[in-house]
Amino acid sequence: MNTLLKLLVFGVLLIANTSLAQNNTLETETAFMNCVYESLPDKGAEFKAILNNAEQQLIKLEFLKDGSGSSYVDVYKNLYKMFSKDLKDLGVASYMSKITSTLDTPEVSKCMEGVFTSEAFASSKLSKMMTIIQAMNQYANGESLVDDILKSLDPEDFTHDYYRMTTFTMIESMNLTDSSGVALELPDKVEGDFTEEEIKIALRIKIDADQKITVNDKEVILGLLYQEVIDYLKKHKSKSVLSFETSKEAAYGNFIKVQTQIVIALDEVREEMAQQKHNTPFKELSTSQQEEIKKIYPLRIIENHEK
């Protein structure tokens, strides 16, 4: 199961299902969540509060009318227009990242396996949603992805915590920035800095004249680009090279969004390594410890922008 799937499916199911208003036909979603929140010390109480707060933030910012299923459907219909610095941190993704290691236990895995192998799972909406998530990179555009999601779910399904969580995660992933809300600058590199082998395995990211974003010539959705970068960095580590090319017709806003997702991906793998090696956030490590991790995950990039 890759990191994105863990984020949207594994990490998504972190909250106690205590609302009587939730759709009781979503048995598989509820069973899956039970595996997770029963493993948490507070039984998911903190995450539930974070989830409700995220919903209230969207209502306050007028991106969401209210907590009804029909309002969430409207959000999905406009999902790929929802770019704002106010949406970069709803508090949901950061909490999921914090507790991922807590969920990575044999007990939780065994419980989840029971859900996946049950008769109910095969015909469940959760199964359909997971199929869509796994195939995200194959969608030609965001609109077709949204269409498939809305075809798979009824409006009232979005009032279930699992699907609210999925919504918030997608919104956050599309609006990733650094802590100041501004994309970080990437250092310029020249091809002579890299070996022929490294250039051959480089991850080729491009924004073309039609504003399409491709990775190794395959079109990807902006909100999912950082996952492609994370997977690549984890595979090649110190030999990683990112090749970032833009057409002269590429919108500057798209350039900034792509650049930001590259930086966020690098930050995530460094943070994960800091936790694995030192059980400490990257920013709290000593200078020598940070440099050690930067050698494992350096930022090595070739930028080529048409004039």
Sum this structure up briefly.
With 307 residues, the chain is an alpha/beta fold.
Secondary structure blueprint with pairings:
Blueprint: H1 3-10, H2 27-37, H3 45-60, H4 69-77, H5 92-103, H6 106-116, H7 119-122, H8 125-134, H9 142-152, H10 161-174, H11 196-200, E1 203-207, E2 213-215, E3 218-219, H12 225-236, E4 242-246, H13 252-278, H14 287-296, E5 301-305
Parallel strand pairs: 1-4, 4-5
Antiparallel strand pairs: 1-2, 2-3
Helix pairs in contact: 2-6, 8-9, 12-13
The radius of gyration computed from the alpha-carbon positions, rounded to a whole number of angstroms, is 20 Å
- The averaged pLDDT comes out at 80
In total, how many beta strands?
5
Give the proportion of residues in helices: 40-55%
